[in-house]
Amino acid sequence: MIQHDYHMHSFYSGDCKAPMEEMILASIKAGLKQICFTEHNDYDYCYIKPEETGMFELDTPAYREGYLKLKDKYKDQIKVCFGIELGLQPHTLQESRELVLHYPFDFIIASSHVCKKKDPYYPYYYDGISIKEGIRDYFEEILTNVSGYTDYDVYGHMDYIVRYIPLERASEYTYRFDDFKDIFEVIFKKIIDTGKGIEINTSGLQQRIAETNPCPEAVRFYKELGGEIITVGADAHKPERVGANFDYAEQVLRDAGFNHYCTFEGRNVRFHNL
Ligand SMILES: [Zn+2]
Ligand SMILES: [Zn+2]
User: Fold this and answer.
1) What is the pTM of this model?
2) pLDDT digit string (tens) for 34-92?
3) Domain boundaries in the chain?
4) Which ligand is closest to the CA of 236, given by its number?
5) Measured between alpha carbons, how far is 206 from 166 in angstroms, rounded to an integer?
6) Mean pLDDT over all residues of the chain?
7) pLDDT given for residue 259 in this prediction
8) Ion ligand 2 — residues with CB under 5 Å?
9) How far, in Å, is the centroid of ligand 1 from the Cα of 273?
10) Could you tell me the strand order of the sheet in which 107-111 lies?
């Protein structure tokens, strides 16, 4: 059973209103043994509304202070770790590197929320290009990130873009992992060769795609290529979502040939039997 949720947010993230304490209490209630907060930091995020400017830049000192108090308060009931979800773009790698060197993070998720200065969460991402081109651009940018940056532990929700293919263009193209297997191979090899890992993110199971990110075929392919480091996270932004669909994630891991999953403390990997 998976008892470690290694991707969750609290009100220190710009898109989350849940108090950190409520996330911890919900995690205890869900029977989790250990959790890691992974608050958002996206340098130069492509804000659409001017009033949102800066919302994805983390107040790390405030986050650290709030974390330390609660970690101690609940230490007899659950182990709480200090992580970050770093949204990367090729032109923000240096700034991201400096940030992570200044704080004692247990765990760092690298993510792509923006590609070519647009967030594929919004349909305008595909303006003037085909759906397939837009998806390939996204994976190309992940490749650029993992080639130029190694200050992370796992790459988060690697096919995040697939969650948000615009409904109004759904007839144009249906995502197939095989169409991008070639670029996944290069990305995974780079991740494995640099001693990094990936995560299984279960939040898409509650969304339109009703699947993990990345998809089970990608997890299987990662294992085939020799990938061993893999964490599991629900990416909860609400207390009721902590540890959600972990039974499904466990099945995806087993089907891919894993009998373990990982956590990190002080940036060091630990392996846990399924
Ligand atoms: Zn994310
Ligand atoms: Zn997240």
Assistant:
1) 0.97
2) 999 999 999 999 998 889 999 999 999 999 999 999 999 999 999 999 999 999 999 99
3) 4-273
4) 2
5) 17
6) 97
7) 97
8) 85, 235
9) 26
10) 4-8, 34-42, 79-87, 107-111, 154-155, 197-201, 230-233
CA of residue 139 to ligand 1 center, whole Å: 15
CATH architecture of 4-273: Alpha-Beta Barrel (3.20)
**pLDDT score at 30:** 97
As to burial, measured by CB atoms within 10 angstroms (0-12 exposed, 13-18 middle, 19+ buried), residue 142 is buried
Q: Are 18 and 262 in contact (CB under 8 A)?
A: no
Burial class (CB in 10 A: 0-12, 13-18, 19+), 168: exposed
Three-class secondary structure of residue 113 per DSSP: coil
Q: How far is the CA of 55 from the centre of ligand 2 (A)?
A: 14
**Ligand 1 midpoint to CA 206 (Å):** 15
Q: Which residues touch 213 (CB under 8 Å, ≥6 apart)?
A: 157, 158, 159, 160, 162, 163, 200, 201, 203, 204
pLDDT tens-digit profile of 107-140?
999 999 999 999 999 999 999 999 999 999 999 9
**Cα 87-89-93 angle, rounded to 5 deg:** 90
59 CA to centre of ligand 2 in angstroms: 16
Type of residue numbered 42: D
Ligand whose nearest atom lies closest to the CA of 111: 1
pLDDT band at 141 (very low <50, low <70, confident <90, very high): very high
